[in-house]
């Protein structure tokens, strides 16, 4: 993978022709990259944008997080959402962080204080909610614009075939549909805004990235907007404050969803309005279970990418760029197991379907330029690195989530998104501390980030956070999953994209497409 050009390397050098991570929100907020539009004094009214200047967009995935992220997107005048898509029609069976939180966010955003999701009257979700939110927002908040009602689709393929005036798509589906839908959109010459991961299969992710490189369309992976800054950490590393860098440790409190030790066995009818075949997409047919869908999908190898795919994009992307991590040579898993009792004899349950309750995975990355070989260690399920002596001396403990850089002469401890780094060395317990502001998903920052996508679609100039820039991380999160599934140390050859020491593990790098879902045919 080519070294990113917009982030400083481990030696402190880099191409500054693109926008770096720290300047992103400032630039977005001040409109330094704003695309020139026809002023309102010509067309009438403050902030008016002519219909021909809007980026028409299809919103694909109307689950809870999809609807939550739809709200700031609707507030960007440069977008016009003309279609929504989800295989689930109504708000039935959804789960969220609270019962009424999302409903109340929607009410405030669309200017309708009595709005309810309908369905089972619990949590919002489904394409009919998505369509209603779009239409109500435009009627109440942008009544001066001329909009026709947006169209709701169950099948993404039908949407791409029928929406002839579509410029872009935002993909907010379960992980197993990301790569497939991104490929289909790029083949139709659409810009693509997508949540993580690029794909939950390595070879499919590579195919997405290669197609994006060949295309002149704008691609953007949403987590880039929330990555922290590596500037202070790299300054300390490059100036030798911790000696030669040896290890990077990153740990999360995920999963915050169930991860199962057995497959679902209960017979449950498919909810009215859910097209189960479309929800499965490319994955093998199986009976419906609510334990596969909505907030649960991340824990299944078939449908999700596990804790690292869920959270590592927010914490590690900036680390990959700054340290110029490309492809690991070795992946070493450690994972929890499940014991079953058949009669009086305990036995290990072979689990090749669900991520473990807890795991740690060590990646070995070769030297790159002046940066020495380095190990990247990921932890989830409550596992954390060994407590550093410096914290023991201060009677401190590691936080539930965090980041640590370990060198030959010292350590840097930081928050999960590299915020508030603290420097320790052997000569002096605590050499320096600093305070940094971490980018959040606050409404105004999301709007500013989305405006950059609009501007890039209009100008045709790719901005930071493209699919191709996430190649190293895409490789890592999928090798993480493959190592956990195999339960074995894996040796990886990046040139051939093959696991060389456990050949049978290569099946975990690809997807066996169900009939009608091969990306070569859609």
General description of the model:
This protein is an alpha/beta fold and 522 residues long. The chain is 28% helix and 16% strand. The protein has 15 helices and 18 strands. The chain has a 10-stranded mixed beta sheet, covered by helices on one side. A 6-stranded parallel beta sheet has the order 3-2-1-4-5-6, with helices on both faces. A hairpin with an 8-residue loop joins strand 11 (359-365) and strand 12. Helix 7 packs parallel to helix 8 (202-214) and helix 8 packs antiparallel against helix 15.
Secondary-structure-derived class: alpha/beta
Beta percentage is 15-25%
Write down the overall mean pLDDT. 89
If strands are numbered along the chain, what order do they take across the biggest sheet? 16-15-14-13-7-12-11-8-17-18
Share of helix among residues? 25-40%
The tally of beta strands, per DSSP, is 18
Radius of gyration: 23 Å
Number of continuous helical runs: 15
Indicate the overall shape: globular
Low-confidence stretches: 1-44, 436-440
CA-to-CA gap between the ends?
27 Å
Biggest sheet features: 10 strands, mixed
């Amino acid at each position: 993978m080519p070294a990113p050009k917009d982030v400083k390397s481990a030696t402190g050098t880099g191409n500054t022709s693109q926008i770096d991570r720290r300047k992103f929100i400032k630039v977005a907020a001040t409109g330094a990259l704003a695309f020139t539009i026809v002023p309102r004094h010509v067309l009438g009214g403050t902030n008016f944008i002519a219909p021909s200047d809007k980026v028409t967009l299809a919103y694909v995935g109307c689950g809870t997080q999809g609807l939550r992220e739809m709200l700031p997107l609707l507030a960007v005048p440069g977008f016009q959402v003309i279609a929504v898509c989800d295989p689930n029609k109504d708000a039935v069976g959804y789960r969220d962080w609270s019962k009424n939180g999302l409903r109340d966010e929607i009410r405030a955003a669309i200017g309708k204080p009595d709005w309810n999701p309908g369905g089972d009257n619990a949590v919002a979700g489904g394409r009919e909610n998505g369509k209603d939110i779009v239409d109500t927002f435009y009627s109440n908040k942008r009544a001066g614009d001329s909009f026709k009602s947006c169209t709701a689709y169950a099948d993404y393929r039908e949407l791409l075939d029928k929406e002839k005036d579509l410029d872009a798509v935002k993909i907010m589906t379960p992980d197993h549909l990301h790569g497939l839908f991104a490929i289909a959109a790029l083949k139709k010459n659409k810009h693509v805004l997508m949540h993580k991961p690029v794909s939950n299969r390595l070879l499919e992710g590579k195919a997405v990235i290669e197609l994006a490189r060949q295309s002149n369309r704008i691609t953007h992976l949403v987590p880039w907007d929330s990555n922290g800054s590596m500037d202070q950490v790299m300054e300390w590393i490059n100036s030798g404050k911790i000696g030669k860098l040896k290890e990077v440790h990153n740990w999360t409190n995920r999963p915050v969803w169930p991860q199962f030790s057995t497959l679902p066995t209960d017979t449950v009818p498919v909810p009215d309005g859910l097209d189960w075949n479309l929800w499965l997409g490319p994955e093998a047919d199986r009976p419906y279970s609510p334990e596969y869908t909505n907030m649960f999908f991340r824990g299944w190898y078939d449908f999700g990418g596990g804790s690292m795919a869920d959270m590592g994009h927010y914490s590690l992307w900036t680390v990959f760029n700054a340290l110029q991590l490309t492809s690991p040579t070795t992946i070493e898993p450690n994972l929890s197991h499940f014991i079953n009792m058949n009669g009086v004899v305990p036995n290990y349950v072979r689990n090749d379907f669900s991520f473990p309750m807890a795991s740690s995975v060590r990646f070995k990355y070769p030297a790159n330029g002046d940066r020495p070989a380095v190990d990247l260690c990921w932890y989830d399920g409550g596992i954390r690195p060994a407590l550093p002596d410096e914290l023991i001396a201060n009677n401190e403990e590691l936080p539930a989530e965090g980041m640590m850089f370990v060198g030959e002469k010292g350590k840097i401890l930081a928050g999960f998104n590299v915020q508030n780094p603290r420097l320790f060395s052997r000569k002096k317990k605590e050499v320096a501390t600093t305070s940094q502001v971490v980018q959040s998903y606050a409404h105004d920052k999301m709007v500013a980030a989305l405006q950059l996508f609009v501007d890039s679609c209009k100008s045709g100039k790719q901005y930071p956070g493209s699919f191709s820039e996430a190649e190293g991380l895409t490789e890592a999160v999928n090798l993480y999953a493959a190592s956990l599934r195999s339960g074995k140390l894996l040796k990886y050859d990046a040139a051939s994209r093959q696991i060389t020491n456990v050949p049978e593990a290569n099946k975990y790098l690809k997807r066996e497409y169900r009939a009608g879902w091969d990306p070569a045919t859609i």
